Amino acid sequence: VAGLRNYRLRGTRHSVGMAVLDQLARELAVAEGWQVDRRCCADVALAAARGLELVLLKPRRLMNINGLSVASAAEIYNLRPEDIYLVHDDLDKTLGKVAIKLGGSARGHNGVQSCISALHSSEMTRLRVGIGRP
């Protein structure tokens, strides 16, 4: 599960992917387990939920190159694109509304496009979190 974000813009709506992963880590009781993984330039926490092993990933890069971190983690943890969930902001959704999208285009989102390019696939599941327009 990768929370796309602008590493330098913490606390903004565009980094909602990080906030969602922080909350998920708290609910899975691994919030204290975040570690910097220099191999993929990201904060990583390992968790288990409902019989699944999860890799929680918060890239430490700019949004438009988050895909480099996601692709590196996929290689390290032997994940296929269809195993990956991307959590990201969506300007076209009302603040707080969420939707799940299975594959498809990036719909103009630079972080998602970076993941598609780096993984050579658009098969990732996306959790789109509405941030509304200013």
Key terms:
Pept_tRNA_hydro_sf; tRNA-binding; single chain; 134 residues; alpha/beta
Notes on the structure:
The strands form two sheets. The chain has a four-stranded mixed β-sheet. A three-stranded antiparallel β-sheet has the order 2-3-4. The mean pLDDT is 94. It is 25% helix and 28% strand. The N and C termini lie far apart (27 Å). The radius of gyration is 13 Å and the shape is globular. It has one domain: Rossmann fold. The chain has 134 residues and is of the alpha/beta class.
List the helices and strands and how they pair.
Layout: E1 2-3, H1 16-27, E2 35-37, E3 42-49, E4 52-59, H2 66-76, E5 85-90, E6 98-102, H3 110-119, E7 125-130
In short, what is this structure?
With 134 residues, this protein is of the alpha/beta class.
What portion of residues belong to β-strands? Answer: 25-35%
Q: How does CATH name the architecture?
A: 3-Layer(aba) Sandwich
Spatial shape: globular
Text of the CATH class: Alpha Beta
Euclidean distance between termini CA atoms: 27 Å
Largest sheet: 4 strands, mixed
Written as H for each helix and E for each strand, in order along the chain, the element string is EHEEEHEEHE
The total of beta strands comes to: 7
The name CATH uses for the topology is Rossmann fold
Give the mean pLDDT. Answer: 94
Q: Kindly report the spatial arrangement of strands forming the biggest sheet.
A: 1-5-7-6
Unreliable parts: none
- Look at the structure and name the CATH superfamily: Peptidyl-tRNA hydrolase
Rg on CA atoms, Å: 13 Å
Helix count equals 3
Q: What is the number of independent domains? A: 1
Structural category: alpha/beta
Helix content: 10-25%
